[in-house]
Write the structure tokens for this entry.
Amino acid sequence: MNPPKVGLMTFGDARDHEWAKLFQGLTEPRHQKAVKYFDQLPVDLVSFESVARKIDEIDEQAEQLKVSGVESLVAHVPCWVSPNMVLRGVQRADLPTILISNKDPGTHGSVGLFGAAGALDQIGFSHVRIREEFEGTNPNAVADKALPFIRAASAVSRLKGRNFGLFGGRSLGIDTGTFDPMQWRRQFGVDAEHMDQLEIIRLAEEVPEDETQKTMDWLAEHMGSIEYDDKGLIPDKLAHQVRCYLATKKIIKERHLDFVAIKCMPDLTNYYVPQCLSAALLPGPYDADGEKETTVMACEADADAGLTSEIMKLVSGGLPTMFADVSFINDDTSTFYLPNCGGMCTWFAARSQDPSENLKQVHIRPAIRPGGGGTTYLTCAPGPLTLGRLYRKSGEYSMAIFHGEAKELPQDEYEAFVAARGSHQLPTAFVKVDVDIDRFVDEFASNHICAVPGIWVKDLEYVCRLLNIRPVLLDR
């Protein structure tokens, strides 16, 4: 995935005598430092050699940024500058904006920052303010504050025009999986393509045998085990699941779908095969054909979970995402037990760039549903996760956001969990969190939750601000 595209404009005092006497010597070196600093960050930077001082210069630079397709603006105000000039540039660019200045007492930077920021506030132009140095004791301070907003702005920009594929309708009466496609259009710029999930079954019959066998051989070679039982999980059933996965990939490509949700239960699980293999492979960065882009898939036709995961994917630069049930909360250890009904992205099994390292920790086991076939079993490897979920209250969106650490349970706790669940063992993440569990219970409005590796809490908070969503930050 391409890095966020960022525009940088440095504003300078328009008065010729003040510029020549004082501000040129203060502004131009700091402009060069700003360009050098942002150019070494993981962004695609568009900047200019000169400082924007006059109206025509400001207009020209703002127009060039718009033409270049930048997704956010860094408005650099290193010294005093007339606030209306900054306002002009920001309005002309009309992008999510960071105002940035410095702490040097000799630059008059703070007065420039607050003058411009106050003017933006008066017209209701939301922005982020940073008052830090590019060098010194904490050279990461600017990046730490700027990058979450830059990534969020990029995610919001790229979300517009996304195409969501919904296979089937409401699953198992899960109302929180339903959505209003026109609300998505208005608020997020996302279109929705509805398809019958039998389209997967129909096209699965057209998948060539050699393509099916290629994936079957790849699974046999790399999976930790395939536990055929001569009843529900037989080679023909698994081959059918493989063909369903390949058919779904074909539909995604031909219909230009960016993320999907599949009903699956109970129709396909009862009378055909579960789509657990698709849930295990689509969100990951590989399959039998080699490396690929991750594609978000939500189970049980959960559209808002799909949208949540797509946002997580975009802010993280394309990382795999997790879809799971909020199945059990261990209040004593503040651990969430997050299984899914039979499919979870295999990347989480070892968090490795080497597919074989992940897949050898994954086991295909017989499904318990009437249609037979297999489910994927794994335990999420230790590491940080950002968890969250879009949900609606009286039609208005909120997003719960918090972070946790996937961990291995102590043996006695794990054995107690297995005993409680019985023979139907599922792919599961055990996640240690630091949230007020009573507040979570009172606020969280879905049985499903999403996650992405790493810590992206601030990024998601900024996404909410940009999309007019109420952020619900659950970390203590």
In short: The two ends are 33 Å apart (CA to CA).
